[in-house]
Amino acid sequence: MFSLFIFVSSAEPVVDFCVADFNYPVGPAGYPCKNSAKVTADDFVYSGLSVAGNMSNVFKLGLSSAIDLTFPALNGLGIGMIRADIGVGGVVPLHSHRVSEIIYVVDGTVTAGFMGSDNKAYYKTVKKGDVMVVPPSLYHFAVNVGNTPATLIASWNSANPGIHTVTTSLAANDLPTDVIQKTTLLDATQIEKLKKMFGGK
Hints:
Layout: E1 61-66, E2 80-86, E3 91-96, E4 101-107, E5 109-115, E6 121-127, E7 131-134, E8 140-144, E9 150-156, E10 164-165, H1 166-171, H2 177-184, H3 188-198
Antiparallel strand pairs: 1-2, 2-9, 3-8, 3-10, 4-7, 4-9, 5-6, 5-8
């Protein structure tokens, strides 16, 4: 004789959608829902990825994202996207997210990859039509190695994946230079140069 137990996952949605209402603060599960009576078809359409981003910066990198902050209909759906336009010789600097990422090369040729937790590097030169996956939390990058601008479209399994960029984490802060020097073994002159470039103190 046995008993049959049926469990209902608490992760099952109880509403069709939850367009973010920015009148309230974000919580661990995302933003509260906008009143569904005020939601229209326009809430589910976003044109922010249709044009190239501004590449006039030190990385020659333009970014346009579709996350809950820019596309509120993504709130609670566990998906997000970004468009990266990389000028010739430009880079997507070393960074990480708390979730997985899949990258599709729309145009151009880039060398892209990530570092495992054992410090092994996995990288390859990829071209138009190729897809690369990056496991969660691992540092990854892309370098435009072609003769024309490159465009990538990436997708995450999160409406807000977070980002931790190594360069700005080191240089766009108010941590004293000597502390950064001791904890990274970088030269103080280089640290000061980076702080000046990225607005650190």
